[in-house]
Amino acid sequence: MYLFFHFSSRITLQDRDSNTLEPLTRAPLKKRKSEVCKCWSEDGASPCVLIETPHKELEPADPSGFKQYQFKNIFINASPIPRLSWANSDDVWIKMLNKELKYVHDKGYLQRHPKLQPKMRAILLDWLLEVSEVYSLHRQTAYLAQDYFDRFMLTEEDKMQLLGITALFIASKIEEIYPPKIFEFAYVTDGACDTWEIQQMEIHMLKALDWNLCPETPISWLKLYAQVEAQTDGENFLVPQFSQETYIQITQLLDLCMMDINSLDYSYSILAAAAFCHFSTFNIVHKVSGLTWDSVAPCVRWMTPFMDTLRSEATPQLKDFPRVKSDDRHNIQTHVVYLDLKAQERQIDIPDCQLSPVAAVSFLTPPSSTEKTANP
Asked: How far is it, in rounded angstroms, from Cα 246 to Cα 236?
């Protein structure tokens, strides 16, 4: 389905003086003891098991009527998904909510890694988005890679570029029908990582993540919200009904926000709802997500500088990719030079002069499409 490329020049993320981070103390992954709470189905009789992690709650505020879920101090209405002929919409909704509890992300890992600064993470993620566009990878693949990287960093630290490219390699095998070969991922690092190192890091990362590789990313939540808003019934729910043009504008806002470390303060469903809110009304957001304004408002306010910056930029246009159908173009991850946008500098708020020598990584733009040649 996708066309692989050889480059006349390479995408690099490498500081010529110090191209890797020295490993710090490695801490084993601590498995959280799962707890169980119950919710009630619409008839108020049959319970559904919900996975709960410590310090988080997901329980019905009104069990008898299945009116709302409570998640921390957030109240979430019953499933906004229309009645489906092929599945129970409440079950689908509950499974998605459970993943918000199971997959924990926290920007606190920066405290464990003093050499890792927020701008370094932004540079790495920007580079991964760049690689994703070159290989026509889906947006979900790029966001899975981001999730793997951030969750892995909660356990330990290693070479940043090796971690990033390995996360993208794993994500592509989860999401893509025809993922790029491992040698192609090694190639774009310009010699910083070889195939053996990626394979070894893949094994290490999978064990550290305990093979939990299927979170609901901001992209999957956004796609659900957009589809529920556009859909009138559940007969063709799997066929996109929303505007591709509006969708890629919202995803560009999410891309810019994702590179800011403070995005980890919010759950993925909240991030998607806040981004959707900037392109819609809250009444619609409430309808498709069940979230209250009090739960979304802090994220909407935090996201406003990013949105203000994008308003001053050119409106993103759908791009054509080899062997990608026109009705699937909006799903392919695209890249702009996000690091040049002023909002990113304001949110990160770390002058270049304060970055450690390790942070002074270089990044190159991939060759233009005319310079890429397809594999035979």
From this structure: 20
Residue 252: count of CB within 10 angstroms of its CB:
20
Q: Which of 262, 279, 311 is the last residue of a domain?
A: 311
3-class SS of residue 139? helix
Q: Which helix (H) or strand (E) is 49 found in, with range?
A: strand 47-52
Mean pLDDT by 10-residue block, N- to C-terminus, for the chain (376 residues)? 33 37 32 37 40 40 48 60 83 84 76 74 92 95 93 77 94 95 93 93 93 93 93 72 92 94 93 95 92 93 93 90 91 88 50 30 35 37
Q: Which helix (H) or strand (E) holds 60?
A: strand 58-60
Same domain, 84 and 157: no
The predicted pLDDT at position 158 comes to 64
> Are 154 and 185 within 8 A, CB to CB?
no
DSSP state of 279: T
Determine contact, residues 2/323, Cβ cutoff 8 Å: yes
- Three-class SS state of 188: coil
CA distance 352 to 347: 14
Instruction: Report the amino acid identity of residue 192.
Output: A
Tokens 């405290």 label which residue?
Answer: 111
Q: How many CB atoms lie within 10 A of CB 58?
A: 21
Distance separating alpha carbons of residues 230 and 233, to the nearest angstrom: 9
- Which candidate, 181, 154, 153, places its Cα nearest to that of 168? 181
Domain that holds residue 139: 5-24+113-214+318-374
pTM of the predicted model over 0.85: no
